[in-house]
Amino acid sequence: MVGESRIMTGDMKVYLRQMVPEIYQYKIWELVFDIAHDGVSYDTLFYKARKYNPTIVLIEDAKGSVFGIYASQTWRESKDFYGTGETFVFSFKNTKFVRVYKWSKKEELFMYSKRNCIAAGGGGMFAVRVGEDFIKGQCGICTTFDNELLADEEFAVKSFEVWGIQ
Length: 166
Prior knowledge:
Strand content: 25-35%
Number of helices: 4
Mean pLDDT: 95
Number of strands: 10
Structural class: alpha+beta
Shape: globular
Radius of gyration: 14 Å
Helix content: 10-25%
Distance between the termini: 10 Å
Low-confidence stretches: none
């Protein structure tokens, strides 16, 4: 891994590596975007992540919950959903285990992003959405992943990172 995470522990790294498709488990993971260093611009996120496919989005909320998105395609501004069935969402209930929610095959609403938000999942609600200026977000139950809530329905973002896999 290239870069230091403010969110991911050693155990979390091990669990996440086991969850991504096998072809990416032994590739280099690089910290591409961190709001603590790069600011709170989606334009900056899209620019810095443009060369990476796939990516992992890690979010820590103000209550210490850690959750995120394995994004199968490059993040970009789009008016439509995109991505593939390899996309999944996850949450760490503690550093001892990870809950992973893969594609349910009920909806093909994987990734969504605009100049003021990014999100994953659909069909009812987003599984996770981070809004303008990376300050607040929402979690919901969606049919794309048949997930449980990843964190509180409304949350305050403490840390937000994007890891590119090469």
